[in-house]
Amino acid sequence: MPAGLSLRMPAGLRRATVLLLPAMIAVAQEPAPVLAQARTPEGRPILLRLQFRKSLSVEGKALPKAFLAKGVDPGGWVAFEGLSPQGKRWALSALFPDDQWRQEEVRHTVRHPEVESVWTMAALFTGHGQNYDRLMAENPDLPEKLREGDIWRIPRNLLSADLGGAGRGPDRSQPEDELDDEARVAAYRALLSFGEDARGKYAAYRMRKGEALYSSVVIRYTDRVDPKGVNELADLIARRSGIADVRGIQPGQLVKIPVAYLADPFQSEGSSGLAEEREVRAEVRRTARVEAGPKLKGVRIILDAGHGGVDPGARANGLWESDFVYDITMRVRRLLEEETEAQVSSTIRYPGLGFKSRESIRTPSRAAEILTSPPFAVDGESPSAVSVHLRWVLANDLFAAFRKTRGDAQKTLFLSFHADSLHPSARGSMIYVPGAALVPSTFALGGAKTGRVAEARRSSRVAFTGREKLQGEARSRQFSEALLTALQKDSIPVHANRPIRNVIHRGGGKWIPAVIRYSTGATKALIEVANLTNEEDAANLRDPGFRERYAVAVVNAIRAYFRK
Q1: What SS3 string covers 231-263?
Q2: β-sheet bridge partners, residue 36
Q3: What was the pLDDT predicted at 7?
Q4: What is the Cα–Cα distance from 65 to 271, expressed in whole angstroms?
């Protein structure tokens, strides 16, 4: 600890008193915020607000200047991040008066389990919500679901620098982070060894410093990303490896991953999955880029915003998928129309908004239509699968019309924008491409799922040769690499382990989304912009500035992709 810093609160700060006020009305089924009344060291009354998954904020009008970070406007509610180190210590002392600030640690007493969480605790005390794994490891006897009166130990080495600690960020950085997708996967594979015991074949992995079983083993090596699937498989692998507590895993711990659960790139030599993976990688290397110039002359682009209408998509942290990805899609559309010569269309439109973006998104939009002939309303009158299928039907029809006018089939791009609800340890963008092994040779959409639109009569059947399947995945991987580069250049978070995937494992099955599985575009990708369950991702998506930056990165990626 730097000289002169102490974990003990100054006396003037410790005297803050708390009076709980009546709870506010809950919104969107979330727990009501906790309001606390305290006094500043000068005796001024002031309110503090703790919100579920939205951290702590303080009423700004009575805050002493010394409690504000430089340049922060004291009007309205001031976020915890906008407080000075002194202000942060005062706010935590005021809201949690039972906490013990010792020289070597803070002992935090849970007072508001309905709105507190391990993630929130980590964000407030350590400066990074993603330190929650390390915080749980320090408290192995306490359940992740907080209980009133539980005392959590936050050691000095985890405390943020503002609170007198070491200021360490989450241990997410690994040597593989700087590699492209193929090299990264190869590096991860090199960390495995294969063996067999009385319970069968397995891949052995030695845990590294800062790694967690959820993210560094399950999500990385098995393609599982949904919370239920990740947790169940983590428990199975822990039992298989003789690990009693997944929170207490130390560096060097041997983990045994049953071979049956490994993703294709990590299967053992001689397996069909590994052979298919290598065939696709070879196709990527020999596939030449298509040149279109910075103005994207002659390029046909179809943009799809996931969900909409009665279907808001994933929900978490006070956000819902549909409106936020629609906003990013509209920003991409605007930039392409203003700055390039590409021919751009959308699959879906919100009638009340048109193709406009918004700075503020407060409530879900209830009206949306797929832009077929006639438009198909996403109103719940038809099965949800109809609106999903009509997106690729419409896109394929537009691509067919483009090819009939002598457009270059290799200059066709389909992008579908989404925001997933994954295990909270997953953060940043993830991109799905159509795995060649899962694309059918032929497919025809049944009459009940066509919505009786003109496009379905022309474009509801698809056929792909083996070569077309390989080319589809190869070109889509090339574009995904360009997108990851553009995102990282602008410091937009990208999934830490394997951000490009060609399969989804969920509910005991595996598949690729229909919008890219049946797309006839030369290049197609489903972009998971963010993980709504991850609080840092959710905060980004809520910010219109972030949504604009994301759209700019997508357009930059398209330009880079269509450049030799």
Answers
A1: HHHHHHHHHHCCCCCHHHCCCCCEEEEEHHHCC
A2: 20, 48
A3: 47
A4: 65
CA–CA distance, 18 with 36 (Å, rounded to integer): 6
- C-alpha to C-alpha distance for 393 and 387, rounded to whole angstroms: 10
What are the C-alpha distances in Å from 512 to residues 33, 69, 422, 436, 438? Answer: 39, 47, 16, 10, 7
Interior/surface letters 344-370, b for 16+ CB within 10 angstroms, e for the rest: bbbbbbbeebeeebbeebeebbeebbb
pLDDT in tens, 492-513: 999 988 999 999 988 778 999 9
Greatest CA separation for the chain = 78
Q: Which CATH architecture has domain 274-561?
A: 3-Layer(aba) Sandwich (3.40)
**Beta pairing class for 348-349 and 343-346:** unpaired
Regions of the chain short of the pLDDT cut 70: 1-30, 53, 130, 167-174, 564
Q: What is the pLDDT of residues 152-208, one digit of tens each?
A: 999 998 999 899 887 665 555 567 877 888 999 999 999 999 999 999 999 999 998
pLDDT at 53: 66
Which H or E run contains 95? Answer: helix 85-95
Structure confidence at residue 76 (pLDDT):
86
Query: Distance (Å, rounded) from C-alpha 258 to C-alpha 152?
Result: 34
pLDDT of res. 535 = 86
- For residues 139 and 151, give the distance between their C-alpha atoms in angstroms, rounded to a whole number: 9
Sign, CA torsion 155/158/163/166: positive
Q: Which helix (H) or strand (E) holds 109?
A: strand 105-109
Q: Give the residue extent of every domain in the chain.
A: 11-163, 175-269, 274-561
